[in-house]
Amino acid sequence: MRFLSKFYIDGFILSILAMVVLASIFPARGDAAEVVSLLTKIAIALLFLLYGARLSPQEAIAGLKHWRLHVTVLACTFVLFPVIGLAARVLVPHVLTGDLYTGVLFLCLVPSTVQSSIAFTSIAKGNVAGAIVSATVSNLLGVFLTPALVILLMNTTGQASVDPSAVVDIALQLLAPFFLGQLIRPKVKGFLSRYAEPTKLVDRGSILLVVYSAFSAGMVEGIWHAMSPWRILLLALVCCAILAIVLVATGFIGEAVKFDRGDRIVVVFCGSKKSLATGLPMATVLFAGHSVGLVVLPLMMFHQIQLITCAALAQRWARSAP
């Protein structure tokens, strides 16, 4: 039993892998895809409602004031990642095709995720207030920074633009439920302090819905069948290498800046993530007329790898939390 325990895999990670298998066999199509998308949005809104209800106003204000943390996360997202993406150019043509390298560079330019970054920070018992601000600011600024970086570093049509409704969507889906949670906090804080299971269930459930929705979209688009298995394996290895470099770098940066444990967790989870939900709509606009399916394939693959890896890290830190 002691020998077998070395190979124990957390049930949450198994659940993520199960969602990948389920989406591969039974991807959501048509009306079902609309229902899954709606359920995902509801789960994410509920998650932020619970975060707002659990955080005291003092903690939320402290999160807003922690500018060193937010600048560090932004630097990881929009400086460290693009440098890695530009360095990956040496992998063409032997490891990556031209289209796949375009996709790898694009994934390095999109903003951080919001929901999963905060959920993993919560699971790992990190600074949730700081994660909410850092991830949200990254996503909001990314609406403008990502197209600018794409135009600066890549060959596009030069007509890149982003729908301003993306900013409204972020505010309605994330910030509005959070502030509503702050308003109802006096009535529910006692219940939430006694029962942690509702937040834990929504944390993990929302991530599982995101995984199923994203992988279903890839199956429906057929992008997994556009390449040979060998090329897919090489791309997966490149995505793993990028994530490993960033995880090590963000861990080192958190230590170098002398953040406490909670803030170091924020730097690792918010600074190492890339948003599929934001990246896919941007790609359809920025690469109009291009092979968008292959361009977004690295982002989709990186998204799955980051969720599984960070789920393991979050569970490990949760067990070692003071």
From TrEMBL:
<dbReference type="InterPro" id="IPR038770">
    <property type="entry name" value="Na+/solute_symporter_sf"/>
</dbReference>
<feature type="transmembrane region" description="Helical">
    <location>
        <begin position="7"/>
        <end position="26"/>
    </location>
</feature>
<protein>
    <submittedName>
        <fullName>Bile acid:sodium symporter</fullName>
    </submittedName>
</protein>
<dbReference type="InterPro" id="IPR016833">
    <property type="entry name" value="Put_Na-Bile_cotransptr"/>
</dbReference>
<keyword id="KW-1133">Transmembrane helix</keyword>
<keyword id="KW-0812">Transmembrane</keyword>
<feature type="transmembrane region" description="Helical">
    <location>
        <begin position="104"/>
        <end position="124"/>
    </location>
</feature>
<feature type="transmembrane region" description="Helical">
    <location>
        <begin position="32"/>
        <end position="51"/>
    </location>
</feature>
<feature type="transmembrane region" description="Helical">
    <location>
        <begin position="131"/>
        <end position="154"/>
    </location>
</feature>
<keyword id="KW-0472">Membrane</keyword>
<feature type="transmembrane region" description="Helical">
    <location>
        <begin position="166"/>
        <end position="184"/>
    </location>
</feature>
<feature type="transmembrane region" description="Helical">
    <location>
        <begin position="71"/>
        <end position="92"/>
    </location>
</feature>
<feature type="transmembrane region" description="Helical">
    <location>
        <begin position="265"/>
        <end position="288"/>
    </location>
</feature>
<dbReference type="GO" id="GO:0005886">
    <property type="term" value="C:plasma membrane"/>
</dbReference>
<feature type="transmembrane region" description="Helical">
    <location>
        <begin position="205"/>
        <end position="226"/>
    </location>
</feature>
<dbReference type="Pfam" id="PF13593">
    <property type="entry name" value="SBF_like"/>
</dbReference>
<feature type="transmembrane region" description="Helical">
    <location>
        <begin position="232"/>
        <end position="253"/>
    </location>
</feature>
